[in-house]
Amino acid sequence: MHPEMERAKARYHQQEVPEELSLTVRAAIREGNQRRKRRQTLRRSLATALASCACFVLLVNGSPSFAQAVYEVPVLGSLAKIFTVTEYTINDDERVIDVRLPALENTGHTELEQKINQEISTRVQAVIDEAEARARETKEAYVATGGDPDDYMPVIIDVDYEVKCQNDQYLSFVINKTETRASAYTEFYTYNIDLETGKELTLRDLLGPNWMETVNTQVAEQIEERSKDPDNVFWTAEQGGFQGIEEDQPFYLNEDGLPVVVFEKYELGPGSMGNQEFVIQTGD
Fold first, then answer.
1. What is the DSSP string of 187-253?
2. d(C-alpha 201, C-alpha 27), whole Å
3. Per DSSP, what are the bridge partners of residue 161?
């Protein structure tokens, strides 16, 4: 090494580091080591969790025997009964579409699964096709009336589902389709399944032969109670408000297994009221 470089190196090592600086450096080193250890621990934990999830998914989908074994375990069995079978996004100058579609699995009733899964697929595809047709027509009308295509706001279509009740006896979920242009319009489809019998549930099954009278009475009472709040506006029967439920009244089961009847926006009051839901007590 060049003599001048040797002398500079010696002077550097002979310099004393101030105590304050020495303490700061040591503290920084300790903090750096602690952060590095925390990151390593977090990475190991995440890797373990992801590997476990991946193994579970692969085994459930690839091994019928494992799927059946999982189904027989109370907690894991509930998770394996419904899953997202399709998920995709379409984004262009006419529409923005987000779809998350459910399917049934491992209920123990193959024919029911096939029937409902096919119905969901067909129904949702028809809804999306109709919404896309409206999106095209809306853009064409916008341009035809002098609108700038670059300023056109695409129609937003969102399809998703929500599991409402999932236990050893019942599985209830709702598929929601929301179409947003100047305002949002929502449609929903409810599915209620008795896992013991392998049949779709009706309000009659849950409430007995007088189910319609039971529901009408409880809905009327709840509307009266809600009307005490000045922010709630329900139309009277003369205005087209509640006059009784329909034979095919939509409903789902809540976490307690109680039926919840649902009325779409504008059925019982102005649009600001949104959908209205009423929990029906079964008397059990």
1. EEEEEEEETTTTEE--HHHHH-TTHHHHHHHHHHHHHHHHTTSTT-----TTTT------TT--EEE
2. 66
3. 175
* Closest to 57 in 3D by CA, of 37, 84, 28: 84
Residue 10 lies in a domain: no
The Cα 253–Cα 219 span in angstroms is 16
The amino acid at 2 = H
**Could you tell me the pTM of the whole model?**
0.68
What's the gap between Cα 124 and its chain centre?
16
Cα separations in angstroms, 62 against 59, 67, 100, 130, 246: 5, 8, 22, 36, 43
- CATH number, residue 140: 3.30.565.40
The backbone torsions φ and ψ at residue 221, rounded to the nearest 5 degrees and listed phi first, read: -65, -40
The pLDDT assigned to 208 comes to 94
C-alpha triplet 251, 263, 211: angle, nearest 5° = 50
Please give the share of the chain, as a percent, with pLDDT higher than 90: 46
The answer to whether 159 and 176 have CB atoms below 8 angstroms apart is yes
Domain boundary among 201, 218, 241: 201
> Which residues share a beta bridge with 177?
159, 187
Q: Report yes or no on 95 lying in a domain.
A: yes
| Model confidence pLDDT, tens digit, residues 124-168 | 999 889 888 888 898 899 899 999 988 888 889 999 999 999 988
Q: Which tens digit of pLDDT belongs to each residue from 6-22?
A: 544 444 444 444 444 44
